[in-house]
Amino acid sequence: EKGTYIFSSKDLCLLKEIPEIIEMGVDSLEIEGRLKTEYYLASVVNAYRTAIDDYMASPKEYDYTKYLNEIEKVKTRSLTTFYFNDRDNKDFQEFEGKQYNPNYEFGGKVVEFNEDKSIIEIKNKLFVGDELEIIIPNKIEVYKFKIEKLWDAETDEEIESVSPR
Predict the structure, then answer these.
(1) I need a labelling partner for 119 at 20 to 30 A (CA). Which of 7, 135, 138, 164 fits?
(2) With contact defined as beta carbons under 8 Å apart, do 62 and 55 qualify?
């Protein structure tokens, strides 16, 4: 009914295994990003970078779930550890197709920040009243806010919604 998914694997996620990876002496990780949005890449890289830094700063306090929560917002497939800690793992094939989190969309990218008005490169339709989160580099906690006003960047006219061009 949905076709075949012979080459559709789940996405590798080793946030839980960060302590073991670091203790093995691994110096760098590669994040696969082909055909992914800048939102996905920013979120995943930020989650791993913060997880590594937090583990290095306080190994006994490491809790992978807060980083995993951020990955869950942007994932497009189920997650797996492939064979990292189980050579017999069979849970790596994606049979359901893409799995977007309907509660989160990429609203836009901050191009110019100003306390009064910031310029945003719009990626999805936004309305006054929408709740947004800003990903802050090297910090797992996001900045949450509600859109109170929108302005057209060219005319400086107040508007109720904005769409990507």
Answers:
(1) 138
(2) yes
The DSSP secondary-structure symbol of 93 reads: B
What rounded mean pLDDT belongs to the chain? 87
**Which of 87, 92, 99 has its CA nearest to residue 8?**
92
Q: Which residue has the higher pLDDT, 58 or 91?
A: 58
Phi, psi for 140 (deg, rounded to 5): -85, -25
Tokens of 140: 């797992």
**Residue 44 burial (C-beta neighbours within 10 Å; 0-12, 13-18, 19+):** buried
Q: Which two tokens stand for residue 39?
A: 């939102």
The distance from CA 101 to its chain's CA centroid, rounded to whole angstroms, is: 11
Q: Are 10 and 77 in contact (CB under 8 A)?
A: yes
